[in-house]
């Protein structure tokens, strides 16, 4: 076939979901992929990075509880960690994912896709036509900043760091975001001597205490943190060693260099110029994921720059797949806020977990962001170590919780938790923010005792009991 109702470019987790939901909606769909089916998350991001972190997390958890601590008699088996990571990526074999695509009734086309006209996609020598829509779900690449010598030094991005088959003795990490913090944690725990340079603090999009607590933890692990500094030059010598010169005049020599300074859209060779768009740009959309200025091109996931997270991309994908099918079949479109065909949560309720030690889990707005939006903000903080369930979980528990309340509506607009396994607390906060549950009603959501979820009761106590 060369004619489909919908052609989806990019068979990562997000593209798979667009294709799946549109197919379930009654459309004939082609899914085009030039690399591995399953995409970045499956092979070079979410899954392998968390697999690299998990063994140390479990080991640290055991060491933090007396009685279990005495049973820990060996060291981390690094090769076993790498082997387990390999199993999560199926050793970078995508046959299982390709089989799923076929089983879902979606046609898989292998090769590089280029948009060559309105509703027209060329793969190799074959021109494919979409009767209704094309969805660009091409993701993003690591940004390589303009630093003299950087490209010639052949630095790692997240791809090399999450797929490495051995651990270097030393690693320089450039960046202060989620990828930098997580991989610095993983590699230090796996035996590398890690230096991290960031031009400001860590995890800048979060509440300030989150980055500060993660920075303290990285120092405790032995990471050499160089905050408020940035590279000015990078050189790799004939022996393979990398010398990074920093803005404070110091130099760091390591076996490898990881760059984690942001992302750029993978649109440079997509053919956007043929339909009046600019190659290399992010594709901005409305809330139904339709690219601005078009009535046939959709952009879903990282490429639209709304929220560069796999789970948020899959959320967008479900909305996009359903609305594309609805429009193609002449069915009603529900594009009102929180309707079935829109990605409203991208604006108000994006959840994210950073799997450092401690974890950082957040949803919605920070206090600063809420104030910037003109809200009447009340901030409530609580030391999570004071919760009974925390002392049961760890003898050395350290954590912090914050909720951000819009006083004019008496609803939560943001929440942040930092501590061991706080990711388990996040979905309750996400539900509260999305549903705009009144503070007075939250008092009747009783947390189980003795669990860490009791922090909700303590936060509400600190906020003030309704009269």
TrEMBL record:
Q: Which organism is it from?
A: Frondihabitans australicus
Annotated binding of NAD(+), by residue: 175-182, 262
Name recorded for this polypeptide: Dihydrolipoamide dehydrogenase
Q: Which Pfam families match?
A: Pyr_redox_2, Pyr_redox_dim
GO terms classed as biological process = 2-oxoglutarate metabolic process
The FAD/NAD(P)-binding domain covers 4-311
- Is Ligase set as a keyword in this record? no
Q: Which domain of life is it from?
A: Bacteria
């Amino acid at each position: 076939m060369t004619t489909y109702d919908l052609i989806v470019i990019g068979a990562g987790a997000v593209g798979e979901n667009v294709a799946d939901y549109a197919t379930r909606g009654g459309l004939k769909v082609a899914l085009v992929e030039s690399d591995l089916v399953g995409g970045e998350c499956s092979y070079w991001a979410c899954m392998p990075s968390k697999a690299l972190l998990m063994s140390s997390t479990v080991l640290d958890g055991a060491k933090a509880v007396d009685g279990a601590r005495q049973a820990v008699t060996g060291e981390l088996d690094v090769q076993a960690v790498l082997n387990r990571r390999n199993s999560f990526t199926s050793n970078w074999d995508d046959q299982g994912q390709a089989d799923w695509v076929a089983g879902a009734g979606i046609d898989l086309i292998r090769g590089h896709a280029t948009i060559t006209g309105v509703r027209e996609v060329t793969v190799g020598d074959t021109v494919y036509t979409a009767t209704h829509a094309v969805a660009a779900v091409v993701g993003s690449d690591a940004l390589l900043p303009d630093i003299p010598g950087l490209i010639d030094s052949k630095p790692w991005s997240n791809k090399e760091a999450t797929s490495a088959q051995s651990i270097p003795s030393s690693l320089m990490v450039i960046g202060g975001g989620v990828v930098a913090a997580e991989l610095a944690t993983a590699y230090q725990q796996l035996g590398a001597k890690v230096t991290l340079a960031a031009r400001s603090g860590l995890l800048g999009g979060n509440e300030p205490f989150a980055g500060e607590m993660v920075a303290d933890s990285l120092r405790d692990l032995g990471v050499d943190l160089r905050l408020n500094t940035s590279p000015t030059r990078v050189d790799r010598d004939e022996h393979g060693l990398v010398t990074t010169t920093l803005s404070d005049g110091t130099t760091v020599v390591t076996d490898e260099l990881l760059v984690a300074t942001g992302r750029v859209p993978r649109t440079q060779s997509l053919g956007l110029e043929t339909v009046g768009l600019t190659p290399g740009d992010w594709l901005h959309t409305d809330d139904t994921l339709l690219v601005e200025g078009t009535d046939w091109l959709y952009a879903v996931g990282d490429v639209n720059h709304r929220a560069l997270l796999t789970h948020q991309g899959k959320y967008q994908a479900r909305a996009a797949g359903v609305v594309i099918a609805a429009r193609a079949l002449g069915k009603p479109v529900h594009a009102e806020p929180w309707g079935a065909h829109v990605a409203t949560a991208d604006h108000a309720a994006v959840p994210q977990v950073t799997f450092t030690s401690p974890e950082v889990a957040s949803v919605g707005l920070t206090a600063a962001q809420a104030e910037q939006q003109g809200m009447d903000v009340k901030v409530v903080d609580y030391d999570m170590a004071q919760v009974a369930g925390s002392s049961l979980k760890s003898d050395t528990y350290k954590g912090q919780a914050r909720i951000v309340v819009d006083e004019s509506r008496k609803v939560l607009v943001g929440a942040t938790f930092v501590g061991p396994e706080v990711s388990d607390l996040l979905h309750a906060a996400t539900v509260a923010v999305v549903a705009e549950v009144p503070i007075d009603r939250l008092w009747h959501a009783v947390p189980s005792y003795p669990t860490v979820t009791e922090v909700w009761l303590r936060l509400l106590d600190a906020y003030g009991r309704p009269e």
